[in-house]
């Protein structure tokens, strides 16, 4: 937790500092955010307001069950990171570096990863019941940021 009050509390949001993971495992904040998608969560805000951090904003609208599910996902992801630290799984070809896993990738004839399709697709029991399938895998974030393509109609079209 990057920022906390004197008694250890955080406000309606918290910022998780993941910068140390890049140094020890090569896992970056984007890897964690993308892996959360495999667990059925929308990827949270990354690197704002501090590079290498994850901003989590649970609100009053989330149930305790949903917050517990999110915590379970984060604990499982930390377990995958620990497995990288311990050399149990490949540091370059692992569920975090390849997340999110699309249905198309999982159903392809060839599977060349050292982890199973099951581990990629269903990292938690609840994902079997309520699976969100990301439609797109990874993109080059920097390229996308520098080469934004808007497919919206021109403003004049909305004035009609």
Detail the topology: elements first, then pairings:
Elements: E1 14-17, H1 19-25, H2 29-38, E2 45-46, E3 53-56, H3 64-85, H4 103-107, H5 117-121, H6 126-129, H7 141-146, H8 155-158
Antiparallel strand pairs: 1-3, 2-3
Tally the helices: what do you get? 8
H-E order: EHHEEHHHHHH
Mean of the pLDDT scores? 89
Q: Could you give the count of β-strands?
A: 3
- Most strands sheet: 3 strands, antiparallel
Strand order of the largest sheet: 1-3-2
Helix/strand-derived class?
Answer: mainly alpha
Instruction: Characterize the overall form.
Output: globular
Radius of gyration: 18 Å
Estimate the helix proportion, in percent.
25-40%
Alpha carbon gap, first and last residue: 49 Å
Q: Flag low-confidence runs.
A: none
Percent of residues in beta strands? 5-15%
